Amino acid sequence: MLLWPWEYLFQAFDKTNFPDLYNLILIAAIGLLIVSVVFYNVRTRQLHRHQVYVQMYEWLLWTCVIVSSLLIIYWIFRFDWIIVLSTIVTGLVVLVWIRFFRFPPYFQAYERQLAKQRYYSRQRFTHPEATIRTKSARRRRRR
């Protein structure tokens, strides 16, 4: 280290200034991109009937795609380290916000909705003859 830590913020992000982070960030960005696409495809196939969860995974996917793409662009065009670092921090904050602050109220509302549906369907079919048609209903249908 030849400079003060805050002076590295305005250095170009390349192999000479950041030899240990340069290739590591590229590999992490490509890995994040691949993992997020695979994870999105797997989870949306599993939860295709639960739209709230699919929406959350879509938000997570697009956040990962945007952050990964930006990091790859920064790697190619040698942006300043402050921009690279702020993108990484902002991307992580947005991922945490999506998962732990944005969608939990929707999950709770959705769980209440499912509980009501289970309760009403159970209440409707608790009577043993609720699913049996009466004779008069069958006669009307034949005509």
Structure commentary:
With 143 residues, the chain is mainly alpha-helical. It has one domain. The protein contains five helices and no strands. It has helices at 22-46, 51-77, 81-102, 104-124, 135-142. The radius of gyration is 27 Å and the shape is elongated.
Helix content: over 70%
The rounded distance between the terminal residues' Cα atoms is 92 Å
Element-level helix/strand string: HHHHH
Number of helices: 5
- Low-pLDDT stretches: none
- What number is the mean pLDDT? 89
Strand content: under 5%
Report on the biggest sheet: none
Structural class: mainly alpha
Approximate shape: elongated
Q: Roughly how many Å is the radius of gyration?
A: 27 Å
Number of strands: 0
Total tally of structural domains? 1
What's the gist of this structure?
This protein has 143 residues and is mainly alpha-helical. Helix content is 72%, strand content 0%.
Topology record:
Blueprint (H helix, E strand, L loop, with lengths): L21 H25 L4 H27 L3 H22 L1 H21 L10 H8 L1
Helix pairs in contact: 1-2, 2-3
Tags for this model:
about 140 residues, mainly alpha, 5 helices, about 70% helix, elongated
